[in-house]
Amino acid sequence: MAVKRETCIQFIDQEGRGEHLSLRGEIMKNKIKGFAKEIGTDDVGIAAIADYQSPRSPSIEKLFPEAKSIVVLAFRELSNCESPSPQIAMSGRLDLMDFLRRSSYRMARFLETDCGAKAMTVPATFPMEMSRETKGLVADLSLRHAAVAAGLGVFGRNNLVYHPRFKNRVIFSAVLTDLGLESDPPAQGESCSRCNRCVEHCPAGALHEEGKTDVMKCMRTLEPYGLGASIQFWTKLMDASPEEKKVLLRDVEYWRLYHVLQMGFQYLCFNCMKSCPDMQKM
Question: Cα 238–240–241 angle (5° rounding)?
Answer without folding.
Answer: 125
